[in-house]
Specification:
Layout: E1 2-4, H1 6-12, E2 24-29, E3 33-39, H2 59-77, E4 86-97, E5 106-117, E6 120-129, E7 132-144
Antiparallel strand pairs: 1-2, 2-3, 3-5, 4-7, 5-6, 6-7
Length: about 160
C-alpha cells in the first residue's frame, strides 16, 4: 500500500490553509480505498466562533475533510489528471453524525469508491476518532476544469 505526505497531497488538492483538511494519507489503493488523517488543533480558526466555551469541529468541515479525501482518491485513481482538472464536490447523501470532534482528536478519514465513471466518482466515507464513528456519508464528486470543461462553475 502507498502513502502520501503533505507535499504530495498539495499536488492533488488545490486547497490551502486554512481550508486544507487532510494532513496525511496513511494508505491508499488506486480505484478502491484511501485512509487519511486530519489532526484537529485548537489553533484552527473555526474554533474561535464555533462554541468557544467548548470547541467542537463543525460537522460541515468533517464532511469537507471526507470530501477532500474522496477527491484525493479520485485524482489518484484517474490516470494523470490534465492540467487544471479537479474533482469537485457534487452531492452528499445519508450524512450522519455520531460523535463530537474536539481539539486534540485525530480524525481518521476512510473512503471507498462505490462507483467510478470517467467524470463521476461516488464514495462511501467514514470519519472516526479512536475507533469510534464520528460521521458517515455517501459523497459524489465530478471532474471539472482543464481542456474538457470550459464552463464557469462556482463549486
Amino acid at each position: 500500500m502507498k502513502s502520501l505526505d503533505i507535499n504530495d497531497i498539495r499536488r492533488y488538492l488545490p486547497h490551502r490553509y486554512p481550508f486544507l483538511l487532510v494532513d496525511r494519507v496513511e494508505t491508499y489503493e488506486v480505484g478502491k480505498t484511501l485512509r487519511a488523517i486530519k489532526n484537529v488543533s485548537v489553533n484552527e480558526p473555526f474554533f474561535n466562533g464555533h462554541f468557544p466555551e467548548r470547541p467542537v469541529m463543525p460537522g460541515v468541515l468533517i464532511l469537507e475533510a471526507l470530501a477532500q479525501a474522496g477527491g484525493l482518491l479520485a485524482g489518484l485513481s484517474s490516470q494523470m489528471l490534465e492540467s487544471g482538472e479537479l474533482f469537485l464536490f457534487a452531492a452528499i447523501d445519508k450524512a450522519r453524525f455520531k460523535r463530537i470532534v474536539e481539539p486534540g482528536d485525530q480524525l481518521i478519514l476512510d473512503v471507498e469508491i462505490t462507483k467510478f465513471r470517467r467524470d463521476l466518482v461516488k464514495v462511501y466515507a467514514e470519519a472516526s476518532v479512536k475507533g469510534e464513528l464520528a460521521c458517515s456519508a455517501e459523497l459524489m464528486s465530478i471532474r471539472k476544469g482543464g481542456a474538457r470543461d470550459t464552463s464557469n462553475s462556482d463549486h
